[in-house]
């Protein structure tokens, strides 16, 4: 565990922690809905520095992890075709589908390539007019605008051998689904700052009011997260439930107008399945009718896919915040980064990967046992 002296500004960290310890009077459960925040929390031991009354629950904030098994299997089917150059970010290659992953497809002769931007895939389509180039477009509101822009550019340039396999999801409907669950224990949310930098905060006040939960827009550095926790706990203790922007250096209330306009042009809102969770209404995007010819599912007619999740994998419960990774019987034994049962163990933002990487292999000590604040 990282000690407080290793924070970028130890004195500020101590002040924030002292304030949280002095404010809290009863147990509170907060959820971060961002895999990057989860990794920062576990890497720096933030959850162990907080009062015992404050529990951080890891939500479905890893875009790789929530990509449904059916879409992974469709990606595997498309990537196996000889006429296809299948492009993806690197963290998707180890995500297990039903019986195999993209690395294995590449090992069997499939042309699977790691790219660093969807525009790299568009460039390949121009260079290989005799091949079909497919980009695997996954993620939350942060990655959707560049993928939308790439499809827009493909149509503008008349590049017909490019298509997008879409699995984009939206955060606000996921928050609503979490709050509607009968097993929900969440009393406040740390909203992902990068999502809000694109979309703004306009969708959150209604959720905060309807479910009586504070939603605090939070950054990703340890001090950002401590400030987000401090503001959320303060609201809970006062009996308030408003939206609070604790990340103003990156987030404007209205978001990014150009990015939102591109999303509205290229995509349309649709129901989406989330791996381990199920279908959440209006929680994703698909290409609009005007751009449907660039939809890889439509182009390659991949249907009739039969999926099968490993019975031992409990990543769905991890994604819903019902289970900590080390509480899964398969964690660190049957399921490791070399032999993953689910995406949460191999994604760079997966909660199981964070617990494994930072050696949270068993029940963690209480905050006061782990490292006193003073």
UniProtKB/TrEMBL annotation:
Stored Gene3D superfamilies: 6.10.20.100, HypD, alpha/beta domain 2
Domain of life: Bacteria
Keyword Cell wall biogenesis/degradation: no
Pfam families named in the record: HypD
InterPro entries to which the protein is assigned, alphabetical: Hyd_form_HypD, HypD_1, HypD_2_sf
Keywords tagged on the record: Iron, Metal-binding
The keyword Metal-binding belongs to this UniProt entry's keyword annotation: yes
Family: Belongs to the HypD family.
NCBIfam families on file: hypD (TIGR00075)
Name the record gives this protein: Hydrogenase formation protein HypD
Organism (species): Streptomyces macrolidinus
Gene of this entry: hypD
């Amino acid at each position: 565990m990282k000690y407080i002296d290793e924070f970028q500004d130890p004195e500020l960290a101590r002040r924030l922690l002292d304030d949280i310890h002095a404010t809290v009077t009863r147990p509170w459960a907060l959820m971060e809905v961002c895999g990057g925040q989860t990794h920062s929390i576990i890497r720096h031991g933030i959850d162990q520095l907080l009062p015992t009354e404050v529990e951080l629950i890891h939500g479905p904030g890893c875009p790789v992890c929530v990509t449904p098994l059916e879409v992974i299997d469709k990606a595997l089917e498309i990537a196996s075709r000889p006429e296809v150059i299948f492009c993806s970010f690197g963290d998707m290659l180890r995500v297990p589908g039903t019986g195999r992953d993209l690395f294995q497809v590449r090992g069997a002769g499939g042309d699977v390539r790691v790219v660093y931007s969807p525009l790299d895939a568009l460039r390949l389509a121009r260079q290989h007019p005799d091949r079909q180039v497919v980009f695997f477009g996954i993620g939350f509101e942060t990655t959707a605008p560049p993928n939308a822009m790439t499809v827009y550019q493909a149509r503008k340039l008349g590049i017909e051998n490019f298509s997008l396999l879409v699995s984009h999801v939206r955060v606000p409907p996921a928050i609503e689904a979490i709050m509607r669950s009968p097993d929900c224990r969440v009393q406040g949310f740390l909203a992902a700052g990068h999502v809000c930098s694109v979309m703004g905060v306009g969708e959150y006040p209604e959720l905060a009011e309807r479910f009586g939960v504070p939603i605090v827009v939070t950054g990703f550095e340890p001090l950002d997260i401590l400030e987000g926790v401090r503001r959320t706990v303060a609201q809970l203790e006062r009996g308030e439930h408003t939206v609070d922007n604790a990340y103003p250096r990156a987030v404007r209330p209205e978001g990014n107008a150009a990015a939102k306009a591109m999303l509205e042009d290229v995509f349309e809102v649709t129901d989406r399945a989330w791996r381990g969770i199920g279908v959440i209404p209006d929680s994703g995007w698909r290409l609009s009718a005007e751009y449907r010819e660039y939809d890889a599912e439509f182009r390659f007619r991949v249907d009739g896919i039969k999926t099968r999740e490993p019975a031992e994998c409990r990543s769905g419960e991890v994604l819903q915040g019902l289970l900590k990774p080390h509480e899964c019987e398969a964690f660190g034994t049957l399921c490791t980064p070399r032999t993953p049962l689910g995406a949460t163990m191999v994604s760079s933002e997966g909660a199981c990967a964070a617990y494994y990487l930072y050696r949270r292999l068993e029940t963690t000590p209480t905050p006061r046992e782990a490292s006193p604040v003073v």
